[in-house]
Amino acid sequence: MSKPAESVKVVVRCRPINKKEIEGGRTVIVSMDKPKGIVSIKNPSDLKAASKDFGFDAVFDHNSTQQEVYDETTFPIVESVIEGYNGTIFAYGQTGTGKSHTMVGYPPETGIIPRTFTHIFDKLSIESGDAMHMVRCSYLEIYNEEVRDLLSDNHKQRLDVKEDPDRGVFVKDLSRQVVKSPAEMDIWMEKGTGNRQVGATAMNATSSRSHSIFTIEIETSSPGPTGETQVRLGKLHLVDLAGSERASKTEATGDRLKEGAKINLSLSALGNVISALVDGKSQHIPYRDSKLTRLLQDSLGGNSKTVMITNMGPADWNYEESMSTLRYATRAKNIKNKPKVNEDPKDAMIREMQEEVAKLKELLANQGGSMKQAGVETISLENIPQGVDPQLLNQIKSEKEEEIMRILGEKGVVEAERKRIAGQLAEISERQRKFQAEKEELVRKIAAIQESLLVGGVNMGDEHTRKEQELRMHEEQLRQQQLEKARIMRELAQHEEDMSHQEEHFASLAEEMEVKQKKMKKIWNKIQSAKVEIKDLQDEFQTERADMLESIRQTSKNLKLKMMMINYFIPPPYLAVIERQLEIDEETAQWRIPNVSLSG
After folding, report:
1. What is the pLDDT of residues 309-359, one digit of tens each?
2. Integer angstrom CA distances of residue 176 from 5, 32, 212, 216, 485
3. How far apart are CA 173 and CA 423, in angstroms?
4. What is the mean pLDDT of residues 373-394?
5. Integer Cα distance of 465 and 459 in angstroms
6. Which runs of E-coded beta strand occur in 263-304?
7. Dmax of the chain from CA atoms?
8. Is 176 exposed, middle or buried (0-12, 13-18, 19+ CB in 10 A)?
9. Could you check whether the bond before residue 107 is cis, i.e. omega within 30 degrees of 0?
């Protein structure tokens, strides 16, 4: 089942002005019109000029709560993921604008990621009792263009990004943990967050130095219309992007500077992908230019419902970065995705587990017959009358064994025959012990697999949870209606403006002159705004160009240093041998020497 193409939903959140900005005498240049979904920003170098307005699906000012942001952006996505769609929420913006606060947060103002945990398990608890669910999570970071598993004990090991016709783009050897409650999910998230790379800069004391993706997979098995079992797999990607940086503001040096360069490079690649998708004329979408864009390939222009949360600051000293962020977000609004329900996916585990349980139960049922065929008499604990003392049973068993041995002795069985019979008894006893161990292992496996599966309707009697879910769904429908109303009002205003340009009839020349002067004034203001926009774009281009040139100069210095070391310490014949042996790894874009581990 698929839906028509839908646009990426883009919202903007502006943090409050911080203490450092207040002490520095900075002024607020950003204002939000929440009902209309409009962000207005003034140019601090020309405060008399008209504000620049940007329209989005929703906007949140510094008074907006974490719950408001979640309900508006994430609630409908999580509901769709449980139905089997893919969903992506990612936060973008300059460093220090509150992306990690929005995505992760701090108690009691927890962010989007921990709120999804409670939402998912509350929803599954009131699902149909015929459905079975399995929830898994994974957590990775992209640090200096290296993909790392944050839930692994060896979390600094580099992993490879692969592509498969059935699975699409995936990370090889990335661990996926089965979880059965929000508390378990919290534990894994805290472990991964603790392993993530952070560092202090002049703009943010706890700046994220990597992009992170927390993924929740929800597999659902339920009876179909004709009784056959249907499996759906929904994936929710929660992406916390590292912030774009300018070295002049972050005052970064050494490792922080290198990290910032890698961050900006991957964000630039993300911008290029967005531009290519919006352009419509591009034959090639450069997803492979970075690890980030490869992993977000489905989220941008593919099979996913996507929300982009754009974070920004309100202060005048970030005007250029704020304008760049808003333009970036405006382009993203035009990306079209084609979400569809993932039915009977090739990489689903829940069907494999159900089949494994059926096989294990069949083995368990057949084990009794196998034991009898092997000459082992078994006593079913279910058939023992209640009230019989186990010690009495053991005593009777011992007496019977003593009687057998006494009879064997009385009848004068030769020593060899007695040994043979004793050996057979020992062999039968060993077989019985093995069969019992196998039975216990089968029972343990069945219990372990069934523990991984959640049965829908566990809390069917919890009317409070059901009513709360229904209320939130109703509130979400009202919000969507309000957003649709705001969108229609914007389109109506644009339509009225367009209609005003059509041929009109006037009662006098004076009336015609007055109307046309008003139109000319509007057009003049638009021309001036366009000129300002062009100048801002030129300034932004020059700034980016200067940053690129600085990056090139730094790279050139490093290259010269390495070339000098090579020329001084590696003889030319050996260098030629090394160059002949080098191979490029297309997946990682890294040069390597094959079988170097065998060199000793």
Report:
1. 999 999 998 888 898 899 889 988 889 898 988 887 665 665 566 566 566
2. 30, 40, 15, 9, 42
3. 49
4. 51
5. 8
6. none
7. 140
8. middle
9. no
Does 574 score more than 60 pLDDT?
yes
- Beta strands 38-41 and 52-55: pairing type? antiparallel
Best CA proximity match to 353, nearest among 133, 126, 82: 133
| Strand 9-14 relative to strand 305-312, pairing | parallel
Percentages of the chain per state (helix, strand, coil), in multiples of 5: 50, 20, 30
- Per the model's pLDDT, the better-predicted residue between 63 and 250 turns out to be 63
Does residue 9 register a pLDDT over 70? yes
Residue 121 Rama label (left phi>0; alpha psi -120 to 50; beta): alpha
Per-residue confidence at 487, pLDDT binned at 50, 70, 90? low
| Residue 163 tokens, joined | 């592509």
Contact 454, 132 (CB under 8 A): yes
Judged against a pLDDT cut of 70, whether residue 157 lies above it is answered with yes
Which amino acid, one-letter code, is at 393?
L
End-to-end alpha-carbon separation of the chain, Å?
A: 56
Contact between 438 and 119 under an 8 Å Cβ cutoff? The reply is no
- Which phi and psi (to 5°) does residue 283 adopt? -80, -20
All residues at 6 or more sequence positions from 553 whose CB lies less than 8 Å from its CB, including other chains: none
H helices of 206-246, in order, are none
What's at 62, amino acid-wise? H
pLDDT value at residue 461: 43
Of 246, 248, 312, 245, nearest to 17 (Cα)? 312
Mean pLDDT calculated for residue range 174-179: 91
Per-residue pLDDT of 390-403, as tens digits, reads 666 667 767 766 76
Residue 200: band (very low, low, confident or very high) from pLDDT cuts 50, 70, 90: low
Gap between the Cα atoms of 178 and 186, Å rounded: 13
Instruction: Give, as one character, the DSSP assignment of residue 322.
Output: H
If DSSP codes are grouped into helix, strand and coil, which group holds residue 162? strand
In this prediction, residue 50 carries a pLDDT of: 77
Instruction: Evaluate whether 484 touches 384 at the Cβ level (below 8 Å).
Output: no
- Looking up tokens 């496996």 gives 445
Question: pTM for the whole thing?
Answer: 0.70
Residue 146 corresponds to which amino acid? Answer: E
pLDDT at 102: 92
Q: Give residue 71's Cα distance to chain centre.
A: 18
Contacts of 523 (CB under 8 A, 6+ apart): none
Report whether 37 contacts 10 (CB < 8 A). Answer: no
Length of the chain counted residue by residue: 600
Partners of 60 in beta bridges: 13
Q: Output the six-digit token pair for 49.
A: 């000029």
Q: What is the DSSP letter of 312?
A: E
How far apart CA 318 and CA 242 sit, in angstroms, is 17
